[in-house]
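REQUEST ID: PR-0412
SUBMITTED BY: lab tech R.K.
PRIORITY: routine
TASK: structure prediction, single protein chain
INPUT:
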Amino acid sequence: MSKVEEFLTQAEEQEIVATIGKAEKNTSGEIRVHIEKETSIAAIDRAMEVFRTLNMENTQERNGVIIYVAVKSHQFAIYGDKGINEKVADDFWNCTKDVMANHFKNGNFKQGLIEGILNAGEQLKKHFPYQDNDTDELSNEISKG
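STATUS: complete
OUTPUT:
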């Protein structure tokens, strides 16, 4: 098994997918999680690459968010699209990253991702509240590299 398969069990992955759906019920924002073995560049730069590869910039309000994790590299990043960045301060994702980092340090990866996703959903709700005509524009499944 690679580091990616060992990172979360199948049941934990399903919990995370369900959590993404729950978080998106309060916002028109879109959240994705991407997990890969390692990165040779800064996690935020790799998150931006994966964001584009997954076509996350194609949301109507440009309000997609990716939570990127490089397992073996022990790095993660959160990247939000243009629509979010135009409305929020530069340190907008710091509280979400801090919550996740505390769980990750203790080896509690599933809970770190769940808390990060729920926190991201709450943050997005403030700027991109759920609309009655909202559609789920991006898959909630975890992508892997």
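NOTES: The mean pLDDT is 91.
REVIEWED BY: pending
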